[in-house]
Amino acid sequence: ELKVEQNPLFLSMQEGKNYTIYCNYSTTSDRLYWYRQDPGKSLESLFVLLSNGAVKQEGRLMASLDTKARLSTLHITAAVHDLSATYFCAPPINFGNEKLTFGTGTRLTIIP
Amino acid sequence: DAGVIQSPRHEVTEMGQEVTLRCKPISGHNSLFWYRQTMMRGLELLIYFNNNVPIDDSGMPEDRFSAKMPNASFSTLKIQPSEPRDSAVYFCASSFIREPQHFGDGTRLSIL
Q: Using 50, 70 and 90 to split pLDDT, how confident is the model at B1?
């Protein structure tokens, strides 16, 4: 069974600071997704990482994937308040599968 | 372009009643997913369809749950009889193969 671990689970950080969220998963996979969820809202797709070494950036967020280490990171640069949300990583359960396993989520709070 | 449409947005009903949740996927998407989200268990995949055919229903909790996709533009998730432990937010998502899943706004279900 695929295990997906995110850390930290909770993160409070000041505006303007940098931080990294880590996502470790236990099986081989060919890609990985990152999602954002605001409180009481749906999930919004942020990134899809399709190969080893893939890096995607959107604004203050940058995601990377190391399939050999089974690790993905989401880096936040110069955080601003509107990045406060819960972030989920989601790899497929195995190579080529459409079924995703979502991590526990990292609840990020940006403090002014 | 309309996203994934779910109905109802909220449902409150008494234990033992039948509950039917509905989903209209994004036109052209060939995969459809039903998820359940709770504080205790996080986001769990219940079932997914590809080209209207159920591919994996291993996440369906028990026989009280059933899902159908009679055509490419409609799916239902039914709970009969409902129990208080079924209270959760149920999300429907759709996608093209290997593309990010697009989530609906969810149905917040409360079983009294």
A: low
